[in-house]
Design goal:
This protein is of the alpha+beta class. The protein has 2 domains: about 80 residues, RimP-like superfamily, N-terminal (GMP Synthetase, Chain A, domain 3, 2-Layer Sandwich), CATH 3.30.300.70; about 60 residues, Roll (SH3 type barrels), CATH 2.30.30.180. Helices cover about 25% and strands about 45% of the residues. It contains 3 helices and 8 strands, in the order αββαβαβββββ. The relative contact order is 0.14.
Length: about 160
């Protein structure tokens, strides 16, 4: 089991207990330092107090595990995934129906490598996005496999 999987397994119940959703976990080396980043969310958004509480609870849990899942020094960071949060799971995509999204595609669709627009449907296999091509609105149906990355976006 990878470090990220171990941390997800340990921290997801803490998030549930506090009424948060564990959105993502990153474990990365930047320069000479290691960072363990946990992203949480909830209805109405996350504030600094939420991040501090979750950091404290997860830190205690990580410190109490033997053997230590992360045996060397690291920085624990907890934050909101932001306004343009990634959509990684089927549940994320289902919750995003009706919202403005950015899709990076694994293959071009109508000559485009990426699409932005309103996600109008997702059934677990296919999704439909309403996007603009020049001045026309167009509904495009895609298989989930043709989407390399998805995230919420801001409609300007």
């Amino acid at each position: 089991m990878s470090t990220i999987d171990k941390v997800k397994t340990l921290s997801a119940p803490v998030a549930d207990e506090l009424g948060y959703e564990l959105v993502d976990v990153e474990y990365v080396k930047e320069g000479k330092n290691w960072f363990l980043r946990l992203y949480i969310d909830k209805d109405g958004g996350i504030d600094l107090d939420d991040c501090a509480l979750f950091s404290e609870k997860v830190g205690e849990k990580l410190d109490s595990i033997e053997p230590d899942p992360i045996p060397h020094a690291y920085y624990l960071e907890v934050s909101s995934p932001g306004a343009e949060r990634p959509l990684k799971s089927d549940d994320d995509l289902k919750k995003a129906v009706g919202k403005y999204v950015h899709l990076t595609l694994s293959r071009q669709v109508e000559g485009q490598d990426a699409l932005e627009g309103y996600l109008t449907a997702f059934d677990g296999v296919e999704l439909t996005i309403e996007t603009k091509f020049k001045t026309r609105k167009k509904l495009i149906e895609l298989s989930k496999e043709s989407v390399a990355k998805a995230r919420l976006a801001i409609d300007f």
